[in-house]
Amino acid sequence: MSSEARVIIDDPPSMSLLGLLMGSIIERRAAQPEIIKRIEKLRGGLVVEAGTMTITLLFAEGKVTVLRGAAEGARARVRGSMNALLNISLGKGMVGPWLSGRIKTKGSLLMLLRVLPLMRA
Amino acid sequence: MTEAVDRFTELLGAERVITGEGLAPYRSDYTEEEPREPGLAVWLETAEEIHAAVIIAGELNLAVAVRVAGSNVGALAMPPAGGVIFDLSGMNRILEVNEEDMYAVLEPGVTWEQLKAHLAEQKIPLSMGYPLSPPDTSIVANCLLDGLGNLSLRHGSMADWIGGLEAVLPDGRILKAGANAASDVWFGNGPLPHLIGLFANWQGTTGIVTKLAFQLWPTPKYRARLFVLMYERAGAFAAFKRLARMPIADDVGGLSWVTGKMLLDVPRPKERDPGEPEFFLYLDLSGNTVEELDLRRRMLDELLVQLEKEGFTSERPFDIETLVKLNPMFSKFADFPTRLEFLVDTPGGGLSWVGTYGPLSRFKEYADRGIEIMERHGFPPAVVSRPMKGGHFGVLRYLTVFDKSDADERRRVREMNIEISRAGYDLGFLTYKTPAWAVEILKDYIDPTFVEVMGAIRKQLDPKGIMAPHCWRFDADERGDP
Questions:
Q1: What is the ipTM of this complex?
Q2: B-chain residues near A4 (CB < 8 A)
Q3: Residue B320 vs residues B133, B140, B285: alpha-carbon distances, Å
């Protein structure tokens, strides 16, 4: 399966900047076989809130769908400023911001830890 | 037309006289303007050839339009049907770079990328202000049409960057305008009557500029390009006003959410997520020492904190290197000049705009109106703006990408642009690089004596009315486009 098919942005003309950016980061990551394996193992949704933007990364059948807003029944949630979340994408680590309260999480920490490497630019 | 072809062939040789299907690239531009059929195009390479060609055009009463890259988005480089196009793209010599007095004397075909490469190759420690137009477009044309660039916050629009010029008048005489009329250094308008103004913003109606001194600036040692996401346009414009008055940035630009999404491969964004930032600002900071740059950066941080206290929410600045790591598409903004494919190389091929200069005090009001008009006409509100000349005025542009092959869409774009222009004129904004259709509207606003004097100057210089007769056509009986 090609990497393009791994990431689906739901209705791109209406997607927020956060969703487009996250989608593009994951799409580039999904060119690597180990990331593809990781995506294939993931199930359920992760809600990402950056600033006042909210998206959901929904994992199913080896694909990631980026949705606008918070999908119901999501297994985990991560929240912070756009800068704090994008710093995670830049590989600056999550523990420090999490301990200092700049990043807040809810739900399955395990899922979050599995998804975070996908979001690394 | 046969006589014209014969006369120009005699002057230039057949290979530099273009007719028939060879005219295809000259028939249209990016905009919704209907294609026009020029009579012929001639490829001119020297001032002497321009001089001779102008005389031929005058004798044959041919309408003349000058063209370089052909990327103007106001149909200005398209002559009335049957006219002759003077293609100056081959006239592209950099005649002089005066490092000490900081200017370069250029021919009309010199492009942004060409001068940049020349300065780099010659290790000349000077830089220039770049517009957002493609790298292969003409510096001289942009100066004469009073465009703007990334040094406009400090130095104003590009007509102010002209240090002198030489032009062929419609009767074939050659005029020097600027200090160079009496000095061997092209240092500005000089303490002489400002005759450079006879060519700046006249859209080729008063003559053809063959040499122009383009002012250059010292290159600071340290630079940073930063992006700030502002959640509301009111915050962006409040930031403009403060930044224009403070020694923080060399350049400040504001782009609406639409352009950000277009950059991320969404050709026609549909709606804004209510939670997402409405504008992103880009800022160029510089310093001759690391400390100076750091100080400016701290001043910016403090300003954003202050704006936050006033209710204008933003994200902390990102530098361009960070954004490029997040998405390589952002490299389009890393270095100028740049080709913004999401605007100029779209599947439908159409790009139109209303570009205005006006007072910062009314930016918010005009942006509110312009955005409402664009949304009502069914186009995403792509707005690009910038404070200029220390905040004395600024640019507010409304861009539209469309399908040129769709006649209905072309019509809708034109109707929308007319409405946006009128809204701008109502608020005291003025279009720049003003296309003929906007001149029609401007008639309702402009001082009649201004028009009268403008017409008298034009008549004096070009009694036959051959130079760009489709441009600045205020009088109904003037010769114009079909």
A1: 0.90
A2: none
A3: 20, 29, 12
